[in-house]
Amino acid sequence: MTTYLESHALTFAAAIAWLVMLSRISGSARTPQSTVAWLLGFAFMPLLAIPLYFAVGSRKFPRRAKGPSLDVRPARPGHSFELLDNGESAYTRLLGLVRGAKRTIDLTMFILGEDATGRAFVDALAERARHGVQVRLILDAVGCAHTFRRAARALAAGGGEVRAFMPLRHSPLRGRTNLRSHRKLAIVDGEYVFAGGMNLANEYMGPALPPEATPRWRDVAAVVVGPAVADAMDLFESDWSFCGGSKRLRLAPVAPMGEMPPGEAVVQFVPSGPDMLNDTMYDLLLTWIFKARERIAIVTPYYVPDETLQHALVLSARRGVTTEIVVPARSNHTVADLARRRLLRELRSNRVGVHYYGKGMVHAKAMVVDDAFAYVGSPNFDMRSLFLNYEDAVCLYSPGAISRVRAFVDGLISECGAAPQIPERRVVEQIALLLAPEL
After folding, report:
1. 64-270 and 280-438: same fold?
2. Strand partners, 356
3. pTM of the prediction?
4. Are 370 and 294 in contact (CB under 8 A)?
5. What percent of the chain has pLDDT over 90?
6. Angle formed at CA 107 by CA 215 and CA 126, multiple of 5 degrees
7. Where are the domains of the chain?
8. DSSP state of 301
9. Alpha carbon 393 to chain centroid distance?
10. What is the CATH number that goes with domain 64-270?
11. CATH number given to 280-438
12. What b/e sequence results for 105-124 when a residue is b if at least 16 CB atoms lie within 10 Å of its CB, and e otherwise?
């Protein structure tokens, strides 16, 4: 009788949990692929899927999303914009900004490498902290799992502060484990913003490599001076508070370092993530795809959009807009490569130019639409970046700045080769596509 009662209670509890999960899934704003994947898991593997959902199933935090510092501010003129189109120039520029900081350094990263590049930045941050600069560093708890403690010790010794974003020990039963901070953002003295796709690790940036070394990943970043810096500062303050840090009083501006005089670039700093009421980057990309009249050019390391974005690109090509995408011939994520196959075949069959970069990994995230819009930032053109991750992007609305991003994209296209011959494996590809939104 005891065994029967225990079995009955377990079955009843599982049924209740299944109904609760079903209700939450059906009532949440998810992509169809994500919804189907969870429902299949609940149907065929409930003992695995139900606890997994509690660990990684949440997508939005509307209470935080209503905070006043998490709005998307409008584009404004009066910016200087500098494009850094390789890892060597980005390393030199960012390290120079850090070493030249007079009062404050606020930096958030998804990956801090356990290598020469990572150590160089930790040492530079610690040195500035020892000389009285207020240094605050946010590291994603998953991306920096192996380097967090060393960075924390080094900065604490000089008076700097390090916070972990979404520590796993604090969120396993709150559905937050799968929501990572993919932002790459540095703000120096409240005057300079460094943003883009590069993490602080050798494969992304570093000093010049010897000729015989494996080439660094192709990536892009930007340095901005102007009104949008205040928007980036507000975003960092929000993240810092979320990580348990105390808010810093707004400091009076200091004289810039002198390398970048005031400019006329029209810039908008756009955050995206679970702390926003809407999916801001997704909405922005979809809007500009439909607004395009002549050309759309996209660079992304992982191409796994939802069906709406996919169809928008198909429609843009059908209505005569030159539509092009640059992806690595082979990325560093096998599941993402499998998931993109059917999507890229569909694009090619609808006259979208798919360019495969075969000289190594492309990790850049950029887009250009006509002469009207461009962006560089941290979001990939995939469902994880657009619906789950905390991201940020520098959006551009003036011809001079847009032309620099276009030149970078066109340079990559000129180096691309023919499409690789890949056999179709439809079942495997479809499974990968179902899993991709949550991986």
Report:
1. yes
2. 327, 417
3. 0.84
4. yes
5. 67
6. 90
7. 2-60, 64-270, 280-438
8. S
9. 8
10. 3.30.870.10
11. 3.30.870.10
12. bbbbbbbbbeeebbbbbbeb
First to last CA, the chain: 43
Beta bridge partners of residue 109, listed in sequence order: 139
Q: Please name every residue paired with 222 in a beta bridge, in sequence order, or none if there are none.
A: 83, 195
d(CA 439, CA 180): 11
Longest dimension (CA), the chain: 81
Question: Which letter does DSSP use for residue 236 in this model?
Answer: H
CB count within 10 Å of CB 420 equals 9
Burial environment of residue 427 by CB neighbours within 10 A (0 to 12, 13 to 18, 19 or more): exposed
Q: Identify the DSSP state of 136.
A: E
Run of H or E including 81: strand 76-84
Q: What gap in Å lies between CA 299 and CA 302, rounded to an integer?
A: 9
Show the beta-strand stretches assigned E in 200-321: 221-225, 265-272, 295-299, 303-304
Contact (CB, 8 A) for 280 and 72 = yes
pLDDT tens sequence across 98-111? 999 999 999 999 99
| Those residues with Cβ within 8 angstroms of residue 228's Cβ, 6 or more apart along the chain or in another chain | 73, 76, 79, 193, 267, 268, 269, 394
